[in-house]
Amino acid sequence: MGIEAGASAQLCSQAGAWEQGGCWSLGTWWKEASFHWRRNVTKGSDWLLVRIPCEPEVVEFLAYEIAESLGIGVETEDTEVRFYVRRKDAEPLDPEIEGRLGSILEEVRLFLGSRTPKGYHVSAFSGSDWAGEWKRHFKPLRVGRRLVIAPTWEQVAAQPQDLVIRIDPGQAFGTGHHETTRLCLRWLEEQAVSKEGLHGGSLFDVGTGTGILAFAGALLGFGRVLGIDPDPQAVESALANRRENPACAGVELRCGTVADVKERFDVVVANIQANLLAAMAEDLAERVASPGRLALSGILLEQADAVRSAYQRQGLDFLEDERDGEWCLLAFKRE
Fold first, then answer.
1. Which of 63, 211, 235, 261 has its CA 20 to 30 A from that of 28?
2. Are residue 181 and residue 283 in the same domain, yes or no?
């Protein structure tokens, strides 16, 4: 299981396996709130909808585990998790997915001591208007005092002080609707107006996804801004979004990992999985300048202690945590 309260060793061992395999891609992780999609579903496609009823307190945990284990996007409701897969041959559900899903449900029940999820329902899905359906729900969103996140196809009635970021997520993570992205956006805005002298400094966005955090940094007045992601699809999405945001034309976007970047930055932000953050602690801490700040998100509350300890061991001073629902952001400094 990817989430175990206080299980620092397990977090690190799991993340190490990902790192050794050269894959800490965001493209297979948790998607945005109720905007978890596979946009290549078309009318007449032979797709299956898998629905898993469960208690409300199980939803986020279960969705995280399915997204992480199966490498697919998921949707959540108050008492249900669901996802879509292609039908293979005449099988109602791919046997490999069926086996892995059964193991996930059993482990979730045992770990949480919950009565649910007991099972799941599979039904055919035609995908008549997949793109239109998720676009209907993706509306402009205000985050913090000045940031407005808007889809590329929506008109925005912006105020003079607003900083508007145009986003078409494609297959990448980052529309601002998930708690972890909002935490990072608000933190960046706070750094931009802080008295610590970091305004105008350099910014490193690790796991940039759609580029949303990098673009926010540029609009908030950071100097050099670099965003990286190991997922080529995510980088393509970020590059397309950069074209939609002319004021962010100077943002650098690369396909790669932290190990590919040698310089240090005044501010570093990483919104990725907790187990990966724990494994990357040494490399990521090395990218923080002196003085400098680091923000980590993508962390469930029960994972915070393990991640915090991993970075304190690298000589960073813990500053604070910010919370939004079941998720948190951990902030550190280097003097």
1. 261
2. yes
